[in-house]
Amino acid sequence: MSAEAAPRTPWKAVIGGSIGNLVEWYDWFVYASFATYFAASFFPTGNATAQLLNTAGIFAVGFFMRPVGAWLLGRYADQRGRKEALTLSVMLMSLSALLIAVAPTYDSVGYFGALVLLVARLMQGLSVGGEYAASATYLTEAAPRGGRGFASSFQYVSMTAGQLLGLGLQIVLQRTMSAEALHSYGWRIPFVVGALGAAVVFYLRRNLLETEVFDEEARAWARPRGTMRSLMAHKKEFLLVIALTMGGTVAYYTYTTYLTKYLSNTAGLAKETATLVSFCALFLFMLFQPAAGALSDRIGRRPLLITFGVGSMLFTVPLMSALGSVGGFADALVLSLAGLLVITGYTSINAVVKAELFPTHVRALGVALPYAIANAAFGGTAEYVALWFKNAGFEPGFFWYVAGCAAVSLVVYLFMRETRDTSLAREEKTPVSV
Question: What start-end ranges are recorded for coiled-coil regions in this protein (predicted)?
C-alpha cells in the first residue's frame, strides 16, 4: 500500500509537527511583539522611532540568516529525514531564546548587549529557516493526497497560535505589571517561557515517526539527496517559489508583526488596546486556515492564491489608510480581520503548494531555500521599510509597496500550473512547472 494511501497516523504527525512549529514561531514573534518594551534596553536613550528602527534592523538581520538555515537544515532534512531536522531546529530555537532572556542591557555593558541580541537573532534565523521547510514537508508528506491542503494548513495554525501565546502573555503582563517593570525586566519573561517550551518540544519531537514518503525514497533511490546540483535541476520551481512568496510574506508581516506598532504609533491607540486587537484578529485568522486548506483540496490551490493576489493588490492601501485613523477597538478589529481574511488565500496553502512543486529527494531544500530568500528580501524587511517610510514622513508609501509586491505575485498565480493532484511519491509522473 502506498505512502499516500495509508499514511502513518496522520493526526499524530500533524500534532507532533505543529506543536514544535508553535514554539518556534512563538519565540520568533515574541521578539517583534515585545520590541517596544526592550528597544530602550539595548540602545542609547533618544528618539523612540530610532530605537525601534534599531531593533527592527536586528529583526531583519535574523531573516537574512534564514537562507543559510534553509540550506543547512533543508539539506539535512533531505539527507537524514524530516524528523531529525525538526528536532535540531527546535534545539537551536531554545538556545537563542535563552540568550535573549539573559542579554545584558546598554546601561550595564554598552553595545555588548545589542551584540548578544544580534547573535541570538542569527541563531533564530538559522532555526526558523530550516523549520519552515521541515514542518511544511513533514505535514504535507504525512497526509493523504486528498487532504494535504487541510493538513498543511496547520502550519499557519501553529504559527499563529505561537504568536497568540506571545500576545496573550503580553496582555497578561501588561495587566499585572507596571509599565516601568515591563520596560525594566518584564520583557525577559516571555523569552524564558519560550526557551523552556522549546526544550519540552525537543523531547517530544524525538518520538515522531519519519514520513513513509521519505523512507520510500531513501530505500528506492541511490541518487544524491538535498544537494544544490539536484535542486538546480528544478530552476523553474525555485524561481516560482520566490515569486509566489513575495506578495504573501510582505502582506503577512504587515498584518501581524507590524500591526500592533502601527495601531499604537500611527492610529494613536493605547499599546494595550492595539495588542488586544491583534490578539482577537489573529485568533479568528487562525480558525480560517483549516477551512481554506480544505477548500483548496476541493477546488485547487490556484483559485485561493489568485483571490489573495487580487484582494491584497486592491485593498491594502484603503485598509491600511483606514486603520491609521481608527478611533477604537471595534473598528480596528473589523479592519484588521478584513486584511487577514484576504491573506488567508496565501497563508493556508503556501506550504503545500511549495512542497508539491519538488520531488522527494530535494523537497525540503526546494521549499526552504527560495522561500527563505524571499522572506529575507521582503518579509524580514517589511517592518523596517514601514518604519523607514514613517520616519521619512510618507507612511502611505509603504501601503503601495505592499500592494505592488502582491501584484507581482498575482501574475505568477495566474500563469502557474495547478499542483493539487501532484503525486509526492511518484513525482516524475506529474511534473509541475510554470
Answer: none
Domain ranges of the chain: 10-429
Q: Determine phi and psi for 147, rounding to 5 degrees.
A: -130, 15
d(CA 351, CA 89): 18
Give 3-state DSSP helix, strand, coil % of the chain, rounded to 5.
80, 0, 20
Cα–Cα nearest to 151, from 136, 166, 169: 136
Q: Tens of pLDDT along 93-104?
A: 888 889 988 888
**CB under 8 Å to 199, separation ≥6 — which residues?**
94
Distance CA(250)–CA(41), nearest Å, equals 28
User: What is the structure's pLDDT at 429?
Assistant: 42
The whole-angstrom separation of Cα 134 and Cα 66 is: 13
Q: How many CA atoms lie within 13 A of 231 on its CB side?
A: 20
* Amino acid at site 41: S
Whole-angstrom Cα distance, residue 278 to residue 336? Answer: 8
43 φ/ψ angles, rounded to the nearest 5 degrees: -135, 155
∠ CA 355-301-314, rounded to 5°: 120
Q: Report residue 275 as a C-alpha cell.
A: 495588542
Q: How far apart are the first and last CA of the chain?
A: 32
Contact (CB, 8 A) for 293 and 157: no
Cell of 429: 509522473
Q: Cell for 284?
A: 479568528
Amino acid at 1: M
Q: What is the pLDDT of residue 310?
A: 97
Q: Specify the pTM.
A: 0.81
Listed as own residue / partner, the contacts of 327-335 with beta carbons closer than 8 Å and 24 or more positions apart are: 328/269, 328/273, 329/269, 329/273, 329/276, 329/277, 332/263, 332/267, 332/269, 332/273, 332/274, 332/277, 333/277, 333/280, 333/281
Considering the segment(s) 10-429 as one domain, its CATH architecture is: Up-down Bundle (1.20)
- Rounded to whole angstroms, the Cα distance separating 89 from 252 reads 22
Amino acid at 209: L
Cell numbers for 113: 548587549
Q: Residue written as cell 504525512?
A: 142
| pLDDT of residue 48 exceeding 70 | no
Phi-psi map region of 306: left, alpha, beta (phi>0 left; psi -120 to 50 alpha): alpha
For 223, other C-beta atoms within 10 Å of its C-beta total 11
C-alpha cell at 406: 502582491
